[in-house]
Amino acid sequence: MIMAIWLTENSKIIVQGITGSEGTKHGRRMLASGAQVVGGVNARKAGQTVDFDGTTLPVFGTVAEAITETGADVSVVFVPPKFTKDAVVEAIDAEIPLCVVITEGIPVHDTAYFWAYAESKGNKTRIIGPNCPGIASPGKSNAGIIPADITTPGRIGLVSKSGTLTYQMMYELRDFGFSTCVGIGGDPIIGTTHIDALQAFQDDPDTDAIVMIGEIGGDAEERAAAYIEQHVTKPVVGYVAGFTAPEGKTMGHAGAIVSGSAGTAQAKKEALEKVGVRVGKTPSETAVLMREIMKNR
Q1: Domain spanning 12-128: CATH 3.40.50.720
Q2: Are 237 and 289 in contact (CB under 8 A)?
Q3: pLDDT by residue (tens digit) across 13-66?
Q4: CATH 3.40.50.261 is the classification of domain 150-295
Q5: Which of 147, 165, 215, 272 is a plausible cystine mate for 277, CB 3.0–4.6 Å?
Q6: List of residues 6+ apart from 5 with CB closer than 8 A
Q7: Domain segments of the chain: what residues?
Q8: What pTM was computed for the model?
């Protein structure tokens, strides 16, 4: 029995914004993957239902109502950026254990607000994201937009700032498989961090090794390296996106801003290697490093 972190086959998922185009599309995909999607939230369409290929799901007016009626413990947020703060605050007020915020383009001030709000309420709600692909525990559940058919269940844990690199790593290591894959997003302020995921994978008896994907900008990877040195005994391999990025230029992700040597891919690579993390120069090379570890287990 392979376990997972934060998202299991028993997780009951609601979709905030289930009647919008993204909520509908990915709600259908999550259901098709075997995830237990039990309903949705849209205050303007409360009492209606949505039909996904023969599965009829109720639409509730609030997250609290959805939890009461369905026992939901995960919310996936697919609402436009200007409404996201209110949607997440509502999820926090309802004390849903896990809130996965897919929406991109949320003002940093709004993210800072709901992150601080969750903390003020005792961190009863774990936030993943925003601007992230979500979380998938292959063969068990899928909350977000991660493709469900690109990998298999296994004993590798994956935490990544990049959505597309999450998918690539899952595919390249599909013969070994994953316990859980967490896309944390690349915004300057995010809920769940590399360190949170590293701690969870370290504590998970069914994760043997960890892949960590970072990117240029900020100091999250350096802080993760310090955490690994002190607290992680499982093998970790890493990749840092942005080795070829021009210095001083703001790149695609809002968090990927480099000034001087701080935040460069090279500086992050060195910080990780110093604590024993093997870092690939490309995603494929990183996958090869993980293969070597898994073959020797």
Answers
A1: yes
A2: yes
A3: 999 999 999 999 999 999 999 999 999 999 999 999 999 999 999 999 999 999
A4: yes
A5: 272
A6: 137, 157, 179, 180, 182, 197, 200, 201, 204, 207
A7: 12-128, 150-295
A8: 0.95
3-state secondary structure 135-200: EEECCCEEEECCCCCCCCEEEEEEEECCHHHHHHHHHHCCCCCEEEEEECCCCCCCCCCHHHHHHH
Largest separation between any pair of C-alpha atoms in the chain: 56
CA distance 78 to 290: 33
Residues 6+ apart with CB under 8 A from 251: 216, 217, 242, 245, 257, 258
> What is the rounded distance in angstroms from the CA atom of residue 239 to the CA atom of residue 272?
10
By C-alpha distance, which of 181, 139, 176 is closest to 154? Answer: 176
Q: What is the pLDDT of residues 71-98, one digit of tens each?
A: 999 999 999 999 999 999 999 999 999 9
DSSP 3-state of 41: strand
Which two tokens mark 245? 């990025």
Q: Which residues belong to the active site?
A: 253
